[in-house]
Structures
1.
Amino acid sequence: MNKTINRSITYIILAVFISITLFCLLYSTKYIGPIFIADKLGLTSIRVKQIITPYSIEELQEIVRNTHEPIAIAGGRYSQGGQMAYPDGVVINMKKLNRIIDLNIDQKTITVQAGATWHKVQRYIDKYNLSVTVMQSYNNFTLGGSLSVNAHARDLAYGPLISSVQSIQMMLADGSLITADRMHNSDLFNAAIGGYGLLGIITQATLQLTDNIPLERKVQPCTLEDVTTLFTKTVATDPSTVFYNTDLFPKQYEKCLMTTWHTTKKPLNNSTRLQQKNSPFYIIDRAMEVFVRRTPLVTKLRPNIEQSKRIAPLVVWRNYEMSYSVHQLAIHIHFPTAMTLQEYFIPIEHAYQFAKKLRSILKKNWVNVLNVSIRHVAADTTSLMSYAPRESFAFVLYLNLFNWQASIARSCRWTQRIINAALHYGGKFYLPYIMCATQQQFDRAYPQFKKLLAIKKVYDPKNKFRNMLLEKYGKTT
């Protein structure tokens, strides 16, 4: 009897020991196995040596000075091609360096640490009736990440983000701090904004703000053939237009819906200051968006559904219209599919020809496109890595891909055809996404990368700051 009890106790102890060991192996890889960092949508995962989160500038300086491995910088991790990591390197997570340092209400400027999200900035400035001038469509991103990719907006009055930046503070490879603007250290200013963290760490920025004003929505159905004419004859010539966007509807890519927002003296009929992702209306809108975009039979009716949703008169605060969250896009499931974006910048005079070619490639390859958004981007001749050196239309593709290597490799093949079309019509492709471009395509779109690498040698002579963008396309030298 005692032997049976002892044997049972031994088995129980053994089972507990094995369970604890398995648990550690599966869930505690931070301590006993390799560390992987992935983008927010789960498309790229990279093994790194360490992820470090500094809580002060002084702590960040110590990390930079004492780290001998390659350093990459991460914030919101919305870039999808490994731009925030380097194999077996160190990743610095900037999200705790997120202080609002100064707000000058009279000058309408704000100085913010790079780890702060745009949502935090919007919440802070809204009570002063101020608004961000330039940011991407969604406010979950960090300022540092947006600066590193030189994000653009829908506002016709401004170009990419660099147009609203007064100055940046950067930490160089030796841990020293340097301020750069258009007059001082301008080479660093021009290269670092849109430089993907390759020259140093953007620690803070001073941005120009604008007034938070009421805006009125107007919608107009259109066809692909109409887009350029409608913009040049009705949007670009109307001084009241603030925001512009045209949705081109899959899967035929013929019908579209133009949405513009205008200055107005009409009273608000939605007085909410900022959108709240936990509100009932937010959740309902998100569910409806997913249903309409992903249900085959309903998708055919989407042009009519979208128009009926937006046809009602709407006057809102500028901050409300600028406070969308990525959570509104879809339910993010990393397997077996994942969401991704692609973006192409085409000079306006060639936009229709490119759009026809884009439509042909997407239909021929049965690409699962959920949305195509066409936006205006003013010319940017300041950023060294400018993606829109001429006034352009941005074609933003929101895609759903199978999240395994063979599917991604296949998607890269048709993506390269789209890139060729963009280059043919004098355009470029955006760099924060899956890096499908060949070296030749990259060199043709961004010949100025050679100059960026030359500036990098001055400020980072030992090549401390690296990521997968540099690893793949740094062969230009």
2.
Amino acid sequence: MTEGISIGEVARHHRLRLINEGVDIERLTATTPDINRPALPIAGFFEYFAEERIQIIGIVEYTYLQGMGEEARKDILRRLFERKVPCVILCRGLEPFPEMVEYADEFGVALFQTEDNTSDFMSEVVRWLKVKLAPRVTMHGVLVDIYGEGVLITGESGVGKSEAALELIKRGHRLVADDAVYIKRVSTQTLIGEGPDILKYFLELRGIGIIDVKQMFGVQAIKATQNIDLVIKVELWDNTREYDRLGDTDEYIDILGNKVICHSVPIRPGRNLAVICESAAINNRQKRLGYHAAKVFSERVNATLR
């Protein structure tokens, strides 16, 4: 998990209006993708209050506060803001109570306003924060979008990963990252890969050097991010090893706790790695759509034997 994201970046991305401009929003951070509507704390129950989360005030909380006496409201809001939450956001363009501004300044809490509907705004913030604050790891390899499938090609240096990527690009597929791939776990089902800014869209070819894929092949040959659906582990052919010839059982690799289908592909002169990657991507998509070629073949063999 990353250390956090500045509240300033949150505000810029979601176009929030800062009410108390004396607060330095760049120094405030959000450390969790979860957010909180402080309904129970506003009613006076502060046990288990998630003070590390961004706090969202919608029409329900606002109306409840509006119906309270002034002294009671001041007491509740003071108790809320003194916890030094990352920020408080008023949805639907609701105007802050004067004591909100007072306590936000006193305790250094950013107070924002947005015109967005509360539920829609919360969903978008959570989705965005899950990506920004997702656990991440860097892997050595090449990530390519092949027919919409994110294929991560791994293997020892010099085994031909970048050359295969170049061939795939020439065949109309898109490069996401070469050499170093940043991988984020945004959910238990989804891994997203991208390239580091310094290496983005550059490809290293042994004997040639660095080429700029975007400049050489155009923007249609690149992609900023891509879900990782399949891993192809490239290795030199070993005559002493038995390789899977049917593919009736899937092997997996663990990345940040998520299991991704992984194929070990041996190479030697004459094997076209780019075509193999294309076939693996199409086969992986067919499996997700319910068609498993190896199982169909086994059924035919069994039927013939019977």
